[in-house]
Amino acid sequence: MKKRFASLFLIVTLILSLSACDIAEIPRLGTTDSPQTQTTEGVAEYKGYTYVDRNLFDFRSDNYNKKELNYGYNSLPNDDMKACYKEIDKSVYYISDTKNADTSTHRTLKIALKGDRPLTEAEIRVTISAYFGDHPQVFWIDNNFEYALGENSTVIQLFSFMGAGELEDAAVKMNSKIDEIFTNMEGGLGEYERELFLHDIIVKFCTYNNGVSNVSDDFAAFTSYGALVKGDVVCEGYSRSLQLLLSVAGIESYCVLGVGQSELHMWNCVNIDGNWYYTDATWNEDDSSGVSYEYFNLSKAQMSLDHSFNPLFADLSEEEICGSTEDSPKSFNIIAPDSNREDMNYYVKSAVCVKNLDDADRENIVSAIKKAASASQNEDFAVYLYIDESLGYYYAIEDIFYGGDYMIFDAIDDVNSEGLAYTIDRDGVGTRKVEELRGVNVYLCKE
Q1: Closest to 140 in 3D by CA, of 46, 206, 215
Q2: Half-sphere exposure of residue 236, counting CA atoms within 13 Å on the CB side?
């Protein structure tokens, strides 16, 4: 399988640059002293900045009602942080016409907040994380920012990787890709079926970019834009693009941070029919069949077998969130539900359930082989089995593949006897056992 994790993705660790920036240096939101004019459409124009129409990023489908994501906003513990969140939502669409020579990024309009006190650094970090956790479509903002604190004021400076013209072009490309995806997605699907369809789109279209270690190498590899338009991404690109598509399809999802295989990693929690599950699209990439389902809608306990979850921000101290001279800031989650449901796991929901090792089970496998072979445009394809809990897992595996009735080969012979346009290679059968989920991936090949 391909490498299934990012070796380093700074954008999710929120490593922030601190600066006592001049509050009066450039125009900013939330004040009355910024040079601006009013357009006939009612959008404020700031000199030296171009407003990018936010509606360009309001992606929608014809068949499903979009799910607006607001868990991050609702999780913020005070009104000052919520006010900051709202100002971030304005700032990101105003892009400076000039590029910073030292960083090759563009400033967005400064955010200026006034209140009884300034925000703390920890509050700023959490608010920024909450905002971008709710907005996977806002992909152009750098992970570095600057801030300055006054006696009762807070000023924050964000930076864009793209100029306004580039950003508008990117929006057109994203709209085109999303329209294509949802044109091919039939209406009336349940939430599970929508998730499965969109998961497969992302996993099959994207390739893991092993050459990227941080955003300075290729910022797009960490974004929904990079996944949907370029298809060459790391785990954050997989996760944020899946989150974005699910929201367009009316499904609530958020990205989760943690560690997998000793490296920083990101995956999704997904709300299906009112219950939370965990899906890792990055680790579901499979060289043998293109897509696997070993990490599709797991409980938290199942996901925790080889994923460790970063703590929630509410469980960390300010020093842990911000770091110190001895320790780096801790990466944290806004949301990581304690889900214990397994009913929407792919093997339980969609795989062939082997119950009795009888003719009925063989016929079900025959049907699955024919369906998968017909749907596959490649010679190689896969079918998936779920071993019922009434059977011993390894006893059933032995009977199906290695001895006993050799059920898989009987099923292949049944398919080949039907005189279809293809035959299945009996010598090309491969398996991957997923014991924790009582699943088996069966890899087959058309001759």
Answers
A1: 215
A2: 29
